[in-house]
Design a protein that fits this description.
By secondary structure, this protein is an alpha+beta fold. It folds into 3 domains: about 10-85 and about 235-295, Sulfite Reductase Hemoprotein,Domain 2 (Sulfite Reductase Hemoprotein, domain 2); about 85-225, Sulfite Reductase Hemoprotein, domain 1 (2-Layer Sandwich), CATH 3.30.413; about 300-375, Sulfite Reductase Hemoprotein, domain 1, CATH 3.30.413.10. About 20% of the residues lie in helices and about 20% in strands. It is built from 8 helices and 20 strands. It has helices at about 40-50, 75-80, 115-120, 180-195, 250-255, 280-290, 315-320, 370-375; strands spanning about 20, 25-30, 35, 55-60, 65, 95, 135-140, 150-155, 160-165, 170-175, 230-235, 235-240, 245-250, 265, 275, 300, 330-335, 345-350, 355-360, 360-365. Strands 1-2-5-4-13 form a 5-stranded antiparallel sheet. A 5-stranded antiparallel sheet has the order 3-14-15-12-11. It is globular. The protein starts with 18 loop residues before the first strand and ends with a helix. It comes from Amycolatopsis carbonis. GO terms for molecular function: 4 iron, 4 sulfur cluster binding; metal ion binding; oxidoreductase activity. Keywords: 4Fe-4S, Heme, Iron, Iron-sulfur, Metal-binding, Oxidoreductase.
């Protein structure tokens, strides 16, 4: 399970430490649990328009990114809106939570746990030095975020108790729901003290050494299941799929206008957005704004490609935009790093000199659609 020692610094971007992309500084804004209020959606829209390239990009950790941030003032705006509660902890506030909890399905309601952990995390000075890739998660029992490779995850087994997973592996440590936040922080503190050069728990020779002493049950592997997060969800919830996880400022404001009684949206780790309370009129207006409720819209994902990334070998999104969903989940990437690839099974489409590598074959961009059809109908 361990891996070689890291020899370079953790360069995960944030607001104060941006990533120098080809299209300008990239700033990542953490949204613990993916929850973002209508007011904060409007703030993000204004920041994208006034300071960046005009769009907001969803990430595979339920966070958002602003690209081309060449003008000053982002941090002060985010702090005023409550989106940056701790300058010292901003890069370590990586917390997933089952996005459909309380909306549709699930064993336990994990709403509020991500926010509770965020407050406690920001109040712990010793945890400000966690690596920017360290990931917490709260799974409501269905197994959706438990399958996302979090460093430490509490997964519900009953409505009021669950087990702790380390690097996606069950440990047999049962913890009541009311103690879940404390349990995850206990593991994080141990990791911070013992990690050496490791960035992730999976890099340690014995991750279970992070657990407190005491009796544990025999670990039981439970299935991971990602329910659809696009289309009608439960009684009033609706999920939307922005193309390639990219939203314009106008679309963000449209979402803010239609959050309904819930007053917030939930950004999922699968680059979709859930409105827990949406009227038919709201759905129609958001569809008109270009936000799809067709689950097939998530079949084709892509990294930013050229011109946004200097390492990309192709204009990935232009090529991917010509693909028609054909029942095959595919991720189109501009280089072998495969940035943004989903954790679920998918077809790798990777740019190389002269075309894209698909299933061991090098194809011209014009033949990508043909390759997807063949995968569906071998």
């Amino acid at each position: 399970m361990s891996s070689p020692a890291r020899v370079r610094a953790d360069a995960c971007p944030g607001v104060f430490a941006t990533h120098d992309a080809a299209d300008g500084p990239l700033a990542r804004v953490r949204l613990p649990g993916g929850v973002v209020s209508a007011e904060r959606l409007r703030v993000l829209a204004s920041c994208a328009e006034d300071l960046g390239d005009g769009d907001v990009h969803l990430t595979s950790r339920g966070n958002v990114q602003l690209r081309g941030v060449t003008r000053p003032g982002l941090a002060s705006r985010l702090m005023a809106a409550g989106l940056l509660p701790s300058p010292t902890h901003e890069r370590v506030r990586n917390v997933l939570a089952s996005p459909l909890s309380g909306v549709h399905g699930g064993t336990a309601d994990v709403r509020g746990l991500a926010g509770e952990l965020d407050v406690a995390l920001c109040a712990a000075p010793e945890l400000a030095e966690l690596p920017g890739r360290f990931l917490f998660a709260f799974d409501d029992g269905r197994g959706d975020v438990a399958g996302e490779g979090a460093d430490v995850c509490w997964r519900a087994v009953t409505s009021d108790a669950g087990t702790v997973l380390l690097a996606g592996v069950e440990t047999g440590w049962f913890v009541p729901r009311g103690e879940a936040v404390a349990a995850l922080l206990t593991v994080a503190r141990e990791f911070a003290a013992r990690r050496g050069t490791a960035w992730r728990i999976a890099e340690l020779p014995d991750p279970t050494a992070l657990l407190p002493r005491g009796p544990r049950s025999e670990p039981v592997e439970r299935p991971a299941r990602v329910d659809l997060t696009v289309g009608p969800l439960g009684d009033h919830g609706v999920g939307f799929a922005p193309r390639f996880g990219q939203l314009t400022a106008a679309q963000l404001r449209a979402l803010a206008d239609h959050t309904g009684l819930a007053g917030h949206a939930v950004v999922t780790p699968w680059r979709s957005i859930v409105l827990p309370d949406a009227t038919p009129d709201a759905v129609a207006r958001l569809n008109t704004a270009g936000l799809s409720t067709d689950p097939a819209a998530l079949e084709i994902t892509a990294c930013i490609g050229r011109p946004g990334c200097a390492k990309s070998l192709a204009d990935v999104r232009a090529d991917a935009a010509r693909l028609v969903p054909a029942g095959v989940r595919a991720h189109v990437a501009g280089c072998a790093r495969r940035c943004g690839r989903p954790s679920a099974p998918h077809l790798d489409v990777v740019a190389e000199a002269g075309g894209y590598r698909v299933g061991g074959r090098l194809l011209a961009a014009s033949r990508l659609a043909e390759s997807l059809v063949r995968k569906e109908n071998p």
